[in-house]
Amino acid sequence: MKQKINRSEEEWKKLLTPEQYAILREKKTEIPFTGELLRNDTLGVYSCAACGQEIFSSKNKFDSSSGWPSFYEMISSDRVELVLDDSYFMKRIEIQCSRCGSHLGHVFDDSPQPTGKRYCINSASLGFTEGSEKEEEEKNDQ
Q1: What is the torsion angle, in degrees rounded to the nearest 10, for the CA atoms of residue 29, residue 30, residue 36 and residue 40?
Q2: Alpha carbon distance 123, 129 (integer Å)
Q3: Of 137, 11, 113, which is closest to residue 61 (Cα–Cα)?
Q4: How far is CA 78 from CA 15, 82, 134, in A?
Q5: Please, which residues have CB within 8 angstroms of residue 138's CB and are 6 or more apart in sequence?
Q6: Residue 142 has pLDDT above 90, yes or no
Q7: Other beta carbons less than 10 A from residue 60's beta carbon
Q8: Residue of 48, 51, 97, 120 marked catalytic
């Protein structure tokens, strides 16, 4: 993991689109089935849209029919922080980028995939870099 990023909310507002700011910094949620990366099936790496830290590999993405991009595993567990979220009268586990503290989505224990985890991520909180799985693995081994 790279060095932590600390910016003022004014700095984040200048760097992010209004939608990204609402999701990443104010912990809003995009409307289901509207995200640009929901149906992306290109090989590559998904990163935090705020700071660029790589978080998910396309090889761990799956269609959960939830309306948001879903992954069953992260590139590395040190890329995120899991925080109890009891907003809206629910108990959920929020996923935050470990580098900049931005809100990415929530994790649930209802995936049929190998880990049983469903990392349900707002598309607007992600960046995507196209590349082969082999390139991803070589990059992650460094």
Answers
A1: 50
A2: 14
A3: 113
A4: 24, 10, 22
A5: none
A6: no
A7: 18
A8: 120
Q: Tell me the sheet residues that pair with 48.
A: 126
Residues 6+ apart with CB under 8 A from 19: 30, 124
- pLDDT per position as a tens digit, 74-125: 999 999 999 988 877 778 899 999 999 999 999 999 998 899 999 999 999 9
SS3 readout for 69-90: CEECCCCCHHHEEEEEECHHHC
Q: Residue 70 is encoded by which pair of tokens?
A: 């879903």
Which residue bears the tokens 């009268």?
A: 89
pTM above 0.85, yes or no: yes
* Residue 18 Cα to chain centre, angstroms: 18
Active site residue 100: no
Contact between 123 and 37 under an 8 Å Cβ cutoff? The reply is yes
